[in-house]
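Problem: given the chain below (205 residues), write out its structure.
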Amino acid sequence: MHTTTLAAFLALDLLLVLTPGADWAYAIAAGLRDRSIVPAVAGLIAGYAGYTLLAVGGLVLIVARSPGVLTALTAAGAAYLMWLGGGVLRRPAVPAAGAEAPAAPPGRTLLRGVGVSGLNPKALLFYFALFPQFVDPAHGWPVAAQTALLGVVHMVSCTLVYLAVGALARTVLRTRPAAARAVTRTSGAAMIAIGALLLLDRLAP
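Solution.
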């Protein structure tokens, strides 16, 4: 893969990753709620690792061309996002303060992160629609290797951005509990809205 091609992919990928969405909402909520944002971000990245494996195996094309599978994935992902968003609205997070605010179990936080990114049908379309534009079958590298490299670049971009988002949410809002609750509720509402839009977009005639 040529360096210029990889640089172009990185620029576009960063532009997309820097666009707020369900991942941002989850990272912000984790930054305000948990002692460490690492489990939440690790979960998000694990979901994308799964998609990378699918892309390397060529299964993304199969799934994306199957309306039934994609509709089921959309429904599951939308319902999960709306369920998470409802929980955030019911229990808005504030910055943890020592023993007064016990952190959520890291394992549960990680698994929820996997669900947020892994059940997001937009991620599937991202891998299906974007990756082929930067893969050159005539290049010396095998297509699987090029796809894997793009997946790794995307995961690194997500890791850096989401860690920064969670850390900034905690730092900026640590001494502003009212603002923290407002931001968390906004994040929860965003999860519900994104889930509803995904569902309506997929099921609309």
